[in-house]
Amino acid sequence: MEIGSRGSGPKLERPRTRLRSLHALDLTAPGEQFFATAAVPCPYIAGRAERKLIVELAGGEAASFYDELSRAGFRRSHRFAYRPACGACAACVPVRIAVARFAHSRSTRRVRSLNRALSGELTPARATPEQFRLFQAYQRSRHCDSEMAAMSYADYRAMVEDTPVRTATVEFRDEEGRLIAATLLDRLDDGLSAVYSFYDPAAERQSLGTWSILWLVEECQRRGLPYVYLGYWIAAAPKMAYKGRFPALERLGLEGWEALAGIG
After folding, report:
1. Domain 96-259 class, CATH top level
2. What is the rounded CA–CA span in Å between residue 198 and residue 208?
C-alpha cells in the first residue's frame, strides 16, 4: 500500500480538509491536515477500488503523533501516514500481536528451529548496496509485476531513509555472515511496527518472512514493549492472509482493539 507511485506524492481527489477526530484515535490533532486520495484499482482484491485517508508526518512531534495514529490503524509510507477509506469495503483489517499473550504454536516453533543459526541485528535506517541486491532478488522472484520490482537504488534508499519517525532496520545473517533477510521497522512508544520485510528467495523453505516477525516479538519481549504491529490482514488476499496465522493476534474493530476471533 504505497502512497502514490515511485517518487511521487499522493493523488488528491479534492483540496485538503481538516478532520477533527478519527475512530479509535484519542486526540483531536489540531493543525493536522487529513485528506483522501482518489479511488484507484485495489491491488489486493480484483474488481474493487481503493482509497486512503492520509496525513503528512512533519515537525518535532511527528514521532509521537505517529504513535497515536498507529493505535488508530494507520501505517506509514515515507513521510505520510495512511489508512484505508474505501466506503463499503472493510477487507483491510489492522492487526497487531499482543506480546504478553504470545505463545508459540507448532508452526512457529518449527520456523524458529529452522532459523536457530541466524543472527539478527538492529541497525540505523541506512540503505546499503548489499540490502538493495537482496531486495531486488526478492522483488524479481515474488513480485515481478509490481512497481517495487522496478525500483532503483535511489528509490530503495528513499523508502528506507525518508522518514520523520524512529525508523530502523533489522539485518538477518547466516553463520557465514551472509545477509539473508531484512526488515524495515518503525519504533513506537508501545511496540515495533513492521514496515516491510524481504529475504533471499532461494531460502523460501525457511519461512523467513514469518521468522522476521517472530524476531520482532522476541525483541519486544526484551525491551518490555507490548505490541508488534503488522499492518493490514486481508483474508481474501493470499499474500496478506498469512498474518492471521500468528498467535495472540488482535484486530482493530468498532470497539477498539480485540482478539481476532478463532486466531491465536
Report:
1. alpha beta
2. 8
Cα 66 to Cα 217: distance, rounded to the nearest angstrom: 20
Q: Which three cell numbers stand for residue 151?
A: 525500483
Per-residue DSSP letters for 158-217?
Answer: HHHH--SS-EEEEEEE-TT--EEEEEEEEEETTEEEEEEEEE-GGGGGG-HHHHHHHHHH
Cα gap 12→40, rounded to integer Å: 11
pTM above 0.85, yes or no: yes
Q: Is residue 157 within a helix (H) or strand (E), and if so which, with residue range?
A: helix 153-161
Please give the single-letter amino acid code of residue 84.
P
Per-residue tens of pLDDT for the chain, all 264 residues: 445 434 444 444 433 333 333 444 443 444 568 889 999 999 889 999 999 999 999 999 999 999 999 999 999 999 999 999 998 899 999 999 999 999 999 999 999 999 999 999 999 999 999 999 999 999 988 776 677 778 999 999 999 999 999 999 999 999 999 999 999 999 999 999 999 999 999 998 999 999 999 999 999 999 999 999 999 999 888 878 788 889 999 999 988 999 986 544
Output Rg (C-alpha) for the chain, integer angstroms: 18
Residue 255: exposure state from Cβ atoms within 10 A (0-12, 13-18, ≥19): exposed
